């Protein structure tokens, strides 16, 4: 009796259908990105399993029809059968041929399109995904672990049966079921990675699964092209064009071992695959994998906390009593997942930024660009700042009727903080880093709406930074975040990019005005100082002349008082004496002649004229000779 295999194909189809629906629902419930991509893989595998089962069903109907035909030939004879058309005698065969000729290529083309469209859509969806983190993780691991177990058992049986019975149509569905088991294992491993401290594991596993889907789409397109140009042989039953060899390789990696054994047999010229070493390795492969798994679990019993770090030890999701806080060094714990360790950098100064989100650069590449106000250098958030000077210039009635004007600033505030209490930081709030950023943003907004625009942009920046640091520290202590705010910087404050050129013009005009005011003040100081010096000189000079005139007048008065008695004593001698006193210094440089006579009255003649050239009488006599009187 011929064995029927279509029920195994139906089992593959129903298994993929049920698990695909359950995996999609579980992925939506636990917010698993890898789970969503795994559900797409299972859904496309269900289509392959459906076509494989239907084609297998047609072939089995054809085989039954052939047996019935042979029975009729033996019972009724061949002559009566030749009078009937072959299409009427073998309808199942005709249905199978039409199915393979028309439906299979169209389905393969549709499958390739779905795989390509799924790759494109999932890639874009992952880039803009907004799902929350995987939660709850234990439920997610349980779901996908159960799906992997069910698919592995069914797929392993179907793949082994297809290989042993050489059932080419049962193989695509079995490979898809087994491949779905490995995809669900990867989804569960992604959840494990997230719990181990790598929050992007789920995202990157989903990316890898999307890449695998793209490779399968490329292979399906190549298979379809090669099928068109493939030479046909009469009676040949080729591999189904929708079957993926790449999926078969991933689902049955032991095929590589078989291929390697055949290559070794060919190279060495004898059956290497039949040697005891190869047989032992083939039988002990599972135990070797279990041994590696045991070593891996044993390695999780040792924890090394680096210097500058502190770690929290949890047992079944709860703090491990007295050993909950681990310092730097080597520690021993129960293997994962009984006890888990979460490390925190307590000595490191960490940074978060409020305001401008800087553009991402490649690791290790230093950004040497010059940042200016008029060029956008990141995603900007606008903050309102009060404009007190403008408000004070408005009329009093207008200020009472309208709200004070405000200005907008683009703010880049780096906040440096250090974790002081690890337990408060880890257990006090669900996401302390996000909470710290939120309260810092709130305090910055509150401060800026009450601050002055000109002060923030000029001299008040350092004072504002210190005030903000104190406010954020006070709020962090109130919420018991367990952090110390080290520094708050306001270096990146500038107007929005759209109005930055006009603001630069205003600032330039203000600086020009201030420069001119200072120049005028300097000129006023110089002029006033020079005028004061000149007034001081003139005042002192006038005072000196006054004193001189007073002393001269007093001296003249005193001299006149003393001369009056002398004049009265000798009225004739005194004028001559005064005359000679004035005469002697007046003629000190003139030539004088003395005439000695005895019989005449004294006659004095003076010649005070200067000669241009010397005469004979002007020649001086030698000093050694004397003249007689």
Number of helices: 18
Q: What class would the helix/strand composition place it in?
A: alpha+beta
Q: Note the main sheet.
A: 4 strands, antiparallel
Would you count the extended β strands for me?
Answer: 13
Mean pLDDT value? 77
Beginning-to-end CA distance, first to last residue:
192 Å
As residue ranges, the low-confidence spans are 390-401, 623-629
Helix content: 55-70%
What characteristic shape results from the CA principal axes? rod-shaped
**Residues in β-strands, percent:** 5-15%
Q: Radius of gyration, rounded?
A: 56 Å
Descriptive report:
There is one protein chain. The chain is an alpha+beta fold. The chain has 18 helices and 13 strands. It has helices at 6-30, 33-76, 86-89, 91-127, 137-165, 170-195, 201-229, 245-251, 254-268, 276-299, 388-392, 396-401, 422-427, 432-450, 453-457, 461-478, 500-569, 573-586; strands spanning 302-305, 309-315, 318-319, 325-326, 329-332, 339-345, 350-355, 357-358, 378-379, 382-386, 406-410, 412-419, 483-488. Strands 2, 3, 4 and 6 form a four-stranded antiparallel β-sheet that branches. The chain starts with 5 loop residues before the first helix and ends in a 43-residue tail after the last helix. The model is unreliable at 390-401 and 623-629 (pLDDT under 50).
